[in-house]
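This part of the workshop introduces the protein records we will be handling. A learned vocabulary of local backbone shapes supplies the integers on the structure line. Getting from the letters to the tokens is the skill we practise here. As an example, a complete record with its sequence and its structure tokens follows.
=====
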Amino acid sequence: MERVKAERLPDGRYVIDPGKVNIDHVETINGGQSNEVWIDFEFADVRRIRPQQRKLFFALLNDIMVWSVTPKDFLKDLFYTQYSIMYDGKEISLSNGSRCSVTDGNRLIDLAVDFMFEWNVPFKEGYELLPRNEEYYLFECCRHRVCCVCGRRAIIHHVEGSRVGMGGDRTKVDHTKRRVLALCEHHHDLIHSMPEGEFGRMFHIPVEGVELDVETLRKIGVRGDYSAYQDEQRGTATG
């Protein structure tokens, strides 16, 4: 992963100085050419890592430790090493005085959360601390069919304003245009019994939900009309 600073122009646009990009690296991962390159980018939060992030990470480690009967120090080193491998040897530290950023902390937490979803590790102490206002967490709950309130097996709930409607054929709907939450049957019934805003306040979750891409919807078994996406893919392939 290349980490390059973008400069802001007077008109509000951001540009990257090509001289700061490792062209050899770009050519290596791009089939030997650098004339046309596709990139992913994110806006980094460069503020110093927060105590809440430290508390959350070690709470999640405690959950994994209880589940796996593995020493916490071993698990910490495991995720620190994984972080370093993923981000080109960069070291991560959550200690007081660390110069790591909020973005660095979030990336480390994401590694622990991904592990817990992948291996069905129960969220206990750490669960109540999860940053539920972040779409990433809600997306992961949908992707793994885990209730965002209690962690049990979930169904996909269309939030208010995105519902299919009584008697509607869900297979005729483009679900990429609708916002959803992952809820177990109990909490799905409960959210239908009260205003969604009240449900969100009760369980401290954002009830606006998230949008899912076609690949994720198909993976979790949400059938719908995705012909527009298929037409777009065919156009890209022939163009």
In short: The longest helix spans residues 51-68. Confidence is low (pLDDT under 50) at residues 41-45, 234-239.
